[in-house]
Amino acid sequence: MHSKEVTRCEEILEDLAVSGALALAVVAGPAPLAQAVGEGPNYDGNGQVTTSKLATYDQMVSFLKDQDAKQQAMELEVIGQTVKGRDLHLVKYISDPDNPTILYLTQQHGNEQLTTEGALEFVKHLGTGKSGDILSGVNILIVPMLNADGAMGDVNFPLDDYVAKGDRNLTRYNAEGVDLNRDHVAKVQPETQALHNNVMRKYDIDYMIDLHHQGTRSERDGELVSGSILYPTTPNADPAVVERSKQLGAVVFDNVDSTGWGHLGKYQGGSAETISRNGIAVEYGISTLLFEMRGMSDHYLDGYALGLRSNGYLIKQTVTTLTSTAAAIADGSIADADTSFWDGLAEQTSRPGGEADDE
Ligand SMILES: [Zn+2]
């Protein structure tokens, strides 16, 4: 049973958390995966896990301000603050309010940073025209590093047992130890409130991709995946919204899985509306896609974190995802995307033996 759970970011890790660093008071006794700690292969088996190459929050903000000054089409807005008072940013490219709009959200979980790195690269490309003239046909919103406190390890609980070496440790949770991707109904945390009050409710958004990282051992058809994707699975989502989510997924699959380095599975996700993929689809009628990329930037469990030698292709996977979806919305081709591939796309599984037998 553990082998499946070990691969999952969106849901199961909250259960892991109570057995690990956080030891939340709400759960009594050891959680099922407690013994996973230390049983897996040494994280060196996933390469050198170091955070020194990752952009800090301050470096990200500096980059965004620099791009804002250079790019006429770009606007940079502060949408709120984290628990620790860090400004949260929205990058906006709105050429025509009547155009369709897509939102890219990264790092709700602070230890999942390469999606943010990819989003920053995408911003740079938009400025240089490397992505072509897509801005005339689509409005693009980007909220990078929503959990900036967790990304900087600036939290009210210890991270002593996290595996990454380098400038800092990164954690899934916000400073209060809350999983932001379980807060999309109650909206208690300031980060979630900033997103909903100043982005979701303020713009007419058609599509959203929520970018994450999962463990390192998920596979499809016998090969480790570079990521996995999923549309809203709550029964309360409008079927038309779900169909457009599947089209969004079709564009991602066609562009990533065909690259040679990309290999995507179907994510096994739950139907809770506290999760953005479900809750935002229901509350706002936005077509959402979850993208879980391989390997986290840091973790307290061996086997979740992935070394920096994989950074390049995972950043590229993010850039490919963002560029291809924006382009497909801009030229309208997303409406022709064939969603039938979903019927044949296998749900990812974990390597036999799970964490103990990874190669
Ligand atoms: Zn995540």
Automatic annotation (TrEMBL):
An example molecular function term from Gene Ontology annotations: metallocarboxypeptidase activity
Keywords: Carboxypeptidase, Hydrolase, Metal-binding, Metalloprotease, Protease, Zinc
Domain of life: Bacteria
Residue intervals of the Peptidase M14 domain: 53-359
Protein name: Peptidase M14 carboxypeptidase A
Membership in a protein family: Belongs to the peptidase M14 family.
GO CC terms, sorted: extracellular space
GO biological process: proteolysis
Matches recorded under Pfam families: Peptidase_M14
Organism (species): Arthrobacter nitrophenolicus
Known cofactor(s): Zn(2+)
